[in-house]
Amino acid sequence: MRVSTRADLELAERARLSPDAAFSDASLGRLTPEAPDPLRTCYQCDRDRILHSKSFRRLAHKTQVFLAPEGDHYRTRLIHTLEVSQVARSIARPLGLNEDLTEAIALGHDLGHTPFGHVGERALSHAIARYRGQDSGDGLFAHNEQSARIVDLLERDGHGLNLTREVVDGIRNHTGSLRAQTLEGRVVALSDRIAYVCHDIDDAERAGLLHEGDLPADARGILGASSSERIETMVHDVVTRSSATGDVSMSEPVWDAMMAMRSFLFANLYSTGDAKWEEPKAYVMIGELFDHYVKHLDEVPDEYRLHDGDKPEVQVADFISGMTDRYAVRVYEDLKVPRSWRRG
To answer: CA 33 to CA 132: how far, in whole Å?
Structure first.
């Protein structure tokens, strides 16, 4: 049986992929140089490091949209991550982009999300601002920056995963108006939007909070009348449009339809409604955990206090943001609920 080596895989990439792809043998390298793996390309190694990390496993118990959902089929942050990976690979493959790099970025893009979804992110930002005496906490804690910080610094007991610069760049620049250096990173950023718009509608329908007929009619007419139809429409559109322009993009009608769906979700699900009724409790919980640990740094695990240059509020934010929903609740109860009041 013939064994394919890393060199064989790199040669195969040169023969198979688009000239615009990010080739493994042309990577900008790692922060700390290391010997290449004999069998895997650098991006395959990165994918495997992320997949086997503690931060990745914790995504299974972190909120996507619904806090503590009663049901087995609602998305967690881990399921969202896997769906982003699937969508991104479905776009990268026909465009001749590097699927291994795409997958590594997709698997790592949300490692820095806090417990309780975006409300946890807001709570940490405001807690940091309060500690620093600042009026506004907007952007002081951002999950994309935290994801990059995890893979660079915090994973492996404070030593980081030492990923390639291309993967870290894609992780850091997957959200908002940020723009990754590689086409693969841009594919992940667009796939993130495609995935959450489609599956958040699906989860809201399952919870009885939305019905298909409630969605914007014009957008439904363009994208389709089901989650699978909408994903297929957008994936095909991105492939067609990107192959024509040489950059990763959607056609204007499909982009506008997707953004109309996104705006509808912000107005009817993300900001208001029954999906949000537990958020004030989660916000207070994160704030009070921060206030406790910033006064008791000795209770923060050693792995978050290895880096002497980090300020106390950064160390505490690192610790709290890594918590799962259920661990944050348990720690909060340990701090706040008298033992005599607890069950069991």
So the answer is: 37
